[in-house]
Amino acid sequence: MKAAVAAIAILTISSPAYAAETSSTVGVGQLSATDLKSLTDMRVGVLKAALQLTPDQEKYWPAVEEAIRTRAKNRQARLERITELHDGAMDALHQSNPVELMQRRADRLIQRGGDLKKLADAWDPLYKTLSEDQKKRMSFASYVVMRGMQDVIEHSRETEEDEE
Q1: CA 71 to CA 150: how far, in whole Å?
Q2: Cα–Cα distances in angstroms (integers) from residue 62 to residues 5, 33, 54, 80, in the given order
């Protein structure tokens, strides 16, 4: 339990520090692949440490980790695409077919939904084996991790706006 609390505390403390380190040179759409990999590594590490898996539960972890990493990789690709489109956004809006815009948006939502479904499917067998304490730690750690990542992104946005 102490290891789980320590891991969560590290994430809570390090997320704003990480944001401060990286945001002085990059904006939200410009977080490097290395930066996002570091955030994903942190997320995976915190969740696993918080869960304190038993040897029997460990066999389910690789699928969960792979789903987390795949979802993060796809998120990175979406952020890169948004950055590419950002500069010519107004021109694209005036020259685009609104139906095509809706179709592309729907395709992106389908991909995000598919990624989330794969993540939920990967978690399901492991979650069924967790004790009540592990479930509580998972819930708390997931909230802290997501909040930490959101703080990094928001801090990057604020820094980018301040620079403009």
Answers
A1: 15
A2: 22, 22, 14, 27
What letter would DSSP give residue 25?
A: T
pLDDT tens-digit profile of 95-119?
Answer: 678 888 889 889 989 999 999 999 9
pLDDT tens per residue across span 45-59: 989 999 999 999 999
Residue 26: is it exposed, middle or buried by C-beta count within 10 angstroms (0-12/13-18/19+)? middle
3-state DSSP assignment of residue 131:
coil
Residue 24 has pLDDT above 60, yes or no: no
Task: Name the token pair of 116.
Answer: 């989330």
State how far the Cα of 27 lies from the Cα of 135, in Å rounded to an integer.
Answer: 35
Residue 17 amino acid letter: A
* pTM, two decimal places: 0.66
83: CB partners within 8 A, 6+ apart: 29, 30
* Distance (Å, whole) CA 37 – CA 52: 23
Strand blocks (E) in 58-150: none
- Decide: 36 and 153 in contact? Cβ < 8 Å: no
Share above pLDDT 90 across residues of the chain, in percent, rounded to a whole number: 35
